[in-house]
Amino acid sequence: MIFFLLTLLIVAIIIMLAFLAPKRYEVSRSVIIDRPHSGVFEYLKYIKNQDHWSPWKKKDPNMKQEYFGIDGEVGFIAKWEGNSDVGSGEQEILEIVQNDRIEAELRFVKPWKSTSHAITKVENLGKMQTKVTWGFSGENKFPANIFMLFYNMDKAAGKDFEEGLNSLKALLEKA
Q1: pLDDT tens digit string along 122-161?
Q2: Structural domain total, the chain
Q3: Which terminus of the chain faces fewer neighbouring Cβ atoms within 10 Å, N or C?
């Protein structure tokens, strides 16, 4: 009887945690780049350019990469397979709104399977300045959502987005 009650209690706690745990995540960061808006957008719409500023490329400069389709166009897919810091997966361009945003789907395979919506948005601030916002969002599915009660996705991934945007700023302002 005690075993049954303990089991019931554990199941009840797991269910309660699942209801309390966040169902979605969203992480984004922004930077202001002293370059013309249209030029920044043109650079960003090519996924292969991420190799020059992505924090994950720095974490594994030897990652294996494959490309399918035409870079800078909807349907382009970039696949990667890297070390434990970057895992493996693919990124597909879903939508390009000229001089506004690039939307993509990130399909992670390792270290765990998940799908996220990625967006890179540019905003013309005038005076040769462009605001770039880079981020991703997705759904926390049960039971993984319980883990998110103890893991701050914004803090963990946010620092990588900040590092990447700072590298992008340095790269484009040097050009």
Answers
A1: 999 988 999 999 998 877 676 666 666 666 666 777 788 9
A2: 1
A3: N
Residue type, 109: V
Identify the CA nearest to 133 among candidates 117, 121, 118, 116.
Answer: 121
Domain containing residue 153: 2-174
CATH number, domain of 115, equals 3.30.530.20
**Rounded to two decimals, what is the model's pTM?**
0.82
Counts for the chain of helices (H) and strands (E), in that order: 5, 7
What is the phi/psi pair of residue 150, to 5°? -115, 0
The DSSP string of 44-64 is HT-GGGGGGT-HHHHH-TT-E
Strand partners, 93: 104
How far is the C-alpha of 169 from the C-alpha of 75, rounded, in Å? 27
